[in-house]
Design goal:
Its EC number is 4.1.2.14. Pfam families: Aldolase. Pathway: Carbohydrate acid metabolism; 2-dehydro-3-deoxy-D-gluconate degradation; D-glyceraldehyde 3-phosphate and pyruvate from 2-dehydro-3-deoxy-D-gluconate: step 2/2. GO terms for molecular function: 2-dehydro-3-deoxy-phosphogluconate aldolase activity. Belongs to the KHG/KDPG aldolase family. This protein is α/β, with parallel strands linked by helices and 218 residues long. It has a single domain, classed as TIM Barrel (Alpha-Beta Barrel), CATH 3.20.20.70. The longest helix is centred in the last third of the chain and has 15 residues. It is globular. It binds glyceraldehyde-3-phosphate (G3H) and pyruvic acid. The site of pyruvic acid (PYR) has 10 residues, from loops.
Length: 218
């Protein structure tokens, strides 16, 4: 992994939470990012599940202090489009060797999804030491992650899928977890109804939890 990639991992590790956002239209991207920043998380993984995803990445990439990743990247072509739009890092639900190869060849941090020891063996083959554990809760949550990571002591994880306020802390307490991903702070209903204050509230609570507090401490 290059210095650039390691620095990007360090930034994600410092934030401890990566909000996963599926954006309905590009018009809400700026206010969504403002709300995340107000809550204390200047970062988003924008999924390519909607047409507006790439345009939102492009818009947010103009903000120097905001880390913007692309999620749901299924192939190398999409990775290239996301990077061309200004994505700082690439995330995928699964392990596509061609996507990973393209990212490594282009000095772009890629965090592919893994769900088994076989996937982890592939990640090792590519020299990766950070992967996404997805879908975390459905796969067995913290006990599964502990069991899975046992034979791979150098591997770090970004669990995503089913993580909410009530289970965030138990994942973050694991030394092999650099950060957790999740959509609960930017629920699709918040964006659809323009409830940006709810994004601020959920994000503020999450940041507090990540720092060991409890939402009731607010
Ligand atoms: O599809 C899954 C999302 O990327 C993240 O999962 P989540 O909605 O359970 O947080
Ligand atoms: C779920 C996930 O990992 C993604 O959409 O990138």
């Amino acid at each position: 992994m290059s210095t650039k990639m390691v620095e990007m991992i360090d930034q994600i590790n410092a934030l401890r939470i990566v909000p996963v956002v599926t954006i309905p239209n590009v018009d809400v991207a700026g206010r969504m990012a403002d709300a995340l920043c107000q809550g204390g998380l200047p970062c988003a993984e924008i999924t390519l599940r909607t047409e507006a995803g790439l345009a939102a990445i492009q818009e947010l990439s103009d903000r120097p202090a905001f880390l913007v990743g692309a999620g749901t990247v299924h192939n190398a072509e999409q990775a290239q489009q996301a990077v061309d739009a200004g994505a700082d890092f690439i995330v995928a639900p699964g392990f596509n060797p061609k996507t990973v190869r393209w990212c490594l060849d282009n000095d772009v941090l890629v965090i592919p999804g893994i769900s088994s020891p076989t996937d982890l063996e592939m990640a090792l083959e590519f020299g990766l030491n950070v992967v996404k554990f997805f879908p975390a809760e459905a796969l067995g949550g913290v006990p599964m992650l502990k069991a899975l990571s046992g034979p791979y002591p150098g591997m770090k994880f970004m669990p995503t899928g089913g993580i909410r306020q009530d289970n965030l802390r138990e994942y973050l307490d694991l030394p092999q977890v650099i950060a957790c991903g999740g959509s609960w702070m930017v629920a699709e209903a918040y964006l659809a109804k323009g409830r940006f204050e709810s994004i601020v509230d959920r994000t503020t609570e999450a940041v507090l939890l990540a720092r060991n507090g409890r939402p009731s401490d607010l």
